[in-house]
Prior knowledge:
By secondary structure, the protein is of the alpha+beta class. The protein has a single domain (16-230), classed as NADH Oxidase (3-Layer(aba) Sandwich). The chain has helices spanning 16-22, 36-46, 65-80, 97-114, 121-132, 154-172, 187-194, 227-230, and strands at 58-64, 139-146, 176-180, 200-209. The protein has a four-stranded antiparallel sheet, sandwiched between helices. Helix 2 packs across helix 6 (154-172) and helix 3 (65-80) runs antiparallel to helix 7 (187-194).
Amino acid sequence: MSAVPASVPATEPIAYDDVVLGRRSIRGFLRKPVPKSVIQDVLELAIRAPSSYNTQPWNFYVITGEPLERIRRGNVERNLAGIPSSREIRSHGEYGGKHRDRQIDVAKQLFGAMGIERHDKAGRDDWVLRGFRQFDAPVSIAVTYDRSIHGGDIGPFDCGGVTNALVNAAWSRGLGCVINSQGIMQTPVVREHAGIPEDQVIMICIAMGYPDESFPANAVVSRRKSIDEAVVFVGFEG
Ligand SMILES: Cc1cc2nc3c(=O)[nH]c(=O)nc-3n(C[C@H](O)[C@H](O)[C@H](O)COP(=O)(O)O)c2cc1C
């Protein structure tokens, strides 16, 4: 595929609305390898994302096979050992207010779908560990940016844009993704096994694969606040 996709893609195109409205986070995957050529197509689409001054600060480490297994094992071991997160991008701490309400709302949807009860500690712990294993996806893509621009907000902003473009492009090719922080919370593990040099800041990762339609959480459609709640129109008549 050329850098700018031709008007007729290799596969039957899906309408933009169908991609955006159909996409949801996928947390259960078929044990089916994802061809490198399909991932390349997805990346070609994703990197059309806009960025500040067209700086395109993003880099992608596309990980599969034994290196990904080592990352999963390292993440789980360190989390079970109680090693705190060493995520490189800043956190604001716990969510409160409406943000917390929405966080709880989607968790209820997911646990409800999976049949994990409120007091089922083992079930909840197992779910968290699945996250640290990146839901056993066959592929994980770590998104990084150059440390030379670390500290500003523009680099992470641009990487967020390309990440969103990537999950939508993946969906248009029949692939499911879940953007996840869990997979990159143990920075040294990811850095070592993916061979990410110190001059790269690890921003986020994306678990990717063909969706397992029988996995209940994959059917969850998360809710959105309304346009009325989110938008202020200024200078419009009526
Ligand atoms: C920055 C970011 C980090 C996320 N981290 C996780 C994660 O660690 N584990 C997880 O299961 N989902 C994670 N998600 C997925 C969100 O929970 C999900 O996008 C949100 O609930 C909306 O659901 P949808 O993607 O199905 O529309 C993350 C999403 C983003 C954008």
